[in-house]
Amino acid sequence: MASISIPVRSQDKAKSGLLGWLATVDHKKVGLMYMVMAFVFFIGSGLLALIIRTQLAAPGMTLVDPNTYNQIFTMHGTGMIFLFTIPMLVGGFGNYFLPIMIGARDVAFPRLNAFSFWITLGAGLVMSIAFLVGDRSAAAWTAYVPLSTSTYSPQSGMDIWLLGLILAGIGSTLGAVNFMVTIFTMRAPGMTAWRIPMFVWAMATTAVMVLLATPVLTAALVMLVADRNFSTQFFTTSNARLWQHMFWFYSHPAVYIMVLPAMGVVSEVLPVFSRKPLFGAKAVVISTALIGILGFTTWVHHMFVSGVSPAIERFFIFTTMVIAVPTGVKMFNWIFTMWGGSLNLKTPLLMCIGFLSTFVIGGITGVIQAAGPVDSYLHNSYWVVAHFHYVLFGGSVFGIFAGLYYWAPKMVGRMFDDKLGKLHFVLMFFGFNLTFFPMHILGLEGMPRRIATYAGDRGWAAGNLVATIGAFTIALSILVFIINLVKIARSKEAAPADPWEGNTLEWMIPSPPPEYNFAVIPTVQSDRPALDARNGGVTPAAHH
Amino acid sequence: MLSSAQFAIEQRRRTGRIGVRLFIVSETMFFAALFFAWYYLGVTSNSAWPPDGVARPLLAPAVLNTALTLISAVTMWLASRSIGRDDQRGLVFWMAASVVCAVVFMAVQTQEFRELAYIAQGSSYGSLFLFLLFFHAVRVFVGVVLMLIVLVRASMHQLNARRRLLVDATVMYWYFIVAVWLAVFTVLYVL
To answer: Helical H runs in A295-416?
Structure first.
């Protein structure tokens, strides 16, 4: 067997204990640190969501005052997006599995990688400390001007929030460079383009989007900092739309930055748990790339009510509807992957089914509100809150948990309790739909988003109560997940190298993997090298 | 045939060059955002662009700086060619010449900043004008630091025709800085 054997050097340098984590440049340890950090922020931002839902459970509640309420939903959104979803999927899964899945021993620039993590953690700490000591931003995660200017947000918490996002952006841009170079230059021999795993394709597309979009947000954030502190005149009231353009030029692609890696996870899990090849793998790759490109052409649909010319509005209505096409293609690919397969109904597959059935609703509501006239009615209503939670919870969070259950045996070397996992899924699935489905109706009934309370005669009480019950059900499901984590930590059942009969290279090395990943760099002969190894050679091309 | 150590250096150079190129892509997007803001505000502004009462900046220092920038691009190219030929003295000479160009550039611009600082707070036009100059100047400063590191390492004989990633990175980044200046000069001073 042809192979390249480069001497393993890092092994003897490895340190143990706390210093081993603080000083590590190992992509797996960096990935785990990203995941732990992201999970802590998930819990924190989730608790904030519970305060929001408690406040809205009944009309006229005064659990928190309106200003505090604004601060809470600001930090909920910021935390969930910048400190949980992106670090978990890109920093966590990306770091841990991208190098292993392409047969590499680490990323291209390991020290830069560790730097990206620490700067992201720094961003999180800066923002949370400001939040905890009470110096808070209250201008929502969108920080629209003039609300976020020094006139209406004089508190230094706003500056700290901006600084935190600049830091997080630098960390994520450098991470994108690192991943792209790793994918370009460090693939195992034989891993041609169509043999690259779907998760890696998703990460490659995500990295391109991060690289192109994030600097634009950074520029806008720096300009706002200058406006607030050095009296420059970028975002005066008459220039308010400039902020919206620059913000959404990043933040719309950011939706795909949060969803594409989750789609990549689903594209890995479904074939393994359906015991079939991914249906139309090339179509999935092409759709992923198309989403990456089209993702840059839709940002103005956030601004239809801000005043754009009819011609521009029509263009962005069109592009927004078009981007649903590659997403729809992938939906069918996933369904036909399961179709006729020998389904292994373990927790990772259930999470993927949760992903498919909720994400499709988020996709469809997206097409509905893409139409400008409809949007002007739905804009800033609870319909929008429902829509993006179906995309980012139904999509990203179900994808994240699919990945966590799928890869947990690999990362910690122990098996999780599948029964508890199923309980987690059932509670989360029902809790999620209870929380967010009624919000569609509340939005159509005219309930605006971001209001701290509402009068009893509006007829919104029932929907809100259901949503609050749902939110606590989600919280319960996360508690079940945490119990499962504790059980994993105490478990004596060592995970085998390949508990699921996987397809990709990570299943060919021990669980947990040694620091150098591969004693001998493998040679890849198909898109399912682990299957080849189990069969003792290359399987015949058995697509569909 | 390359030895395995040489192979590793060659591999590092290839990897590093792709990394620098991608980093430059992200830097390009940063400046693209500022230029977008410039044109967007210029088009949507209710008043004149530049606004009445704000004098157009002097062309003479900018022309001088453009000349310096173009000369520095040539000296950088010569420095890069020198290391390709393992010509240590050529590398040091041309890199030092580039440093001189960049330092004079910064001196000229410091004077310009002193005279123009007040316009940053008067209008969106002035704010963006100074922002574009300032963030380009930050890159020039980073470029000079990189050049000085090259000079120190060259004087310690740590660079040669094979071990040259640092020189490659410095040269590529400097070409990017030159390109940004040409865009800044064209948009802010000429058009």
So the answer is: 304-307, 310-322, 324-338, 347-370, 372-378, 382-391, 398-412
